[in-house]
UniProtKB/TrEMBL annotation:
Record-linked PANTHER family: CHAD DOMAIN-CONTAINING PROTEIN, SLR1444 PROTEIN
The organism's taxonomic lineage, starting at the top: Bacteria, Bacillati, Actinomycetota, Actinomycetes, Kitasatosporales
Protein name (record): CYTH and CHAD domain-containing protein
A Pfam family of this chain: CYTH
Domain of life: Bacteria
CDD domains (alphabetical): CYTH-like_Pase (cd07374)
SUPFAM superfamilies listed in its UniProt record: CYTH-like phosphatases
Species of provenance: Streptomyces griseoluteus
The PpiC domain, residue ranges: 218-319
InterPro entries: CHAD_dom, CHAD_dom_sf, CYTH-like_dom_sf, CYTH_domain, PPIase_PpiC
Amino acid sequence: MADVKREIERKYEVAGDGPLPELAGAGAVADVVDRGVVELDAVYYDTADERLGAASLTLRRRSGGADAGWHLKFPVAPGVRDEIRAPLSDTVPGEIAELVRSRVRGAELVPVVRLRSARDVRHLVGADGTLLAEASVDTVDAERLNRAGGTAHWTEIEVELADGADPAVLDAVEERLAEAGVRPSKAPSKVAEALRRTGGSRARSAGRAAEPVTAGDHVLAYLREQREAILARDPGVRRDLPDSVHQMRVATRRLRSAFRSFGSVLDRDATAPVAAELKWLARELGAGRDQEVLAERLSDALDAVPPGEVTGPVRERLGSWAAARHGSTRGRLLGVLDSARYLALLDSLDTLLADPPLRKKAARKPGKVLTRALKKEGDKLARLVTAALELPPGEDRDHALHQARKRAKRARYAAEAAVPALGGSARAPARAAKKLTSLLGEHQDSVLARQTLRELAAVAHAAGESAFTYGVLYEREEQAARRTEEKLPGKWAKARSAFPH
């Protein structure tokens, strides 16, 4: 079974094979304990075109040391990675393979680099003997296993923070190392350094992408950013990390919205099939996400009810409902991410972005093209909001406001996509549409909460339980909906003025 370790470390270049500088007295480090030399042998895996490396992911099979096994590392922040570990085996463990499936898809994972390291380990401990960090001098021999091959040899210092230790320890150690002339490594990992020294990698040989110039450049840059967001969030969804489903769903919506908002740049006939599949994926992601939001809302609302107004096992029933829904939606979602349909969608998206169906206006400067697209979005949003406000309170108005909310999201995403090209003239409508979307989202959440409360009340009544508290919560949700509707005209006026006319 795979487990997870948050790895916080820093790497440093060493000229020659010099010893580790004296670190006792660096910040909270009171003593340095020699732990001997460990021999490590690691083979790093990737696809033939090095897709994992391009995404700053590393996958290795390592023997030797206390943590022998398979390790998959995800970047979290500079110097911070999540390491997924699985026991040593001859082939890539299934739980590891699942986490890179969106990157690898049908390609084979093959050995690309072998690193054999002699690790001279020191424990940096505090005055009470508590482990603060582990510092090591690693003498590395690298062998390229794919393409033309090649070898390299170097020495580096690695300092890894102990679990629960203060990150200030790393700063103090770095300051001491700097005094000794030791400088941070330019490579984020050993395998990156090995690839650099043995002939580079395909992932890095392409260089930095050109700055966007045309309207098409800007739209495509935005689309590629959202595609990467889907791939980056996929492992988090599989690991059930907080907010991962929501962020992946947002990326699918942004892609689909961009296809529709920038129809003057991209041929909609060509993007329509991919957009339809993105809609399917967003719907599958939304089933679990909507339930999470609703469960949290109802739980918070129940917390605000005076104890004297809570009758019957309301909290227990709400908890059971939330747990049951989460389990069923999560199982379905994992099936979606492992499905041929999902992987085909990712392939289709890659194909489209590799050879985009650009229209004539894509070659023009972005100013007029993108501003016109924002004006259209603002006009369409205006028609929906105006029509919704003219309806009397009730189901028809609720539905109309929900449609306006979806259009407000689309307008917001279009404005956000245009910000790099238009600056403040796109940033203002993006902010305004975000605020409007938030207000309309609060209204829709109230609608869904009332529907759920009716269902839970009916189940409770059938079980012979009091439905009183569900009625209290229902009334509060009705009041919340009325308050949002009262705020809507003013909020809409501000949003409308922010869009191009």
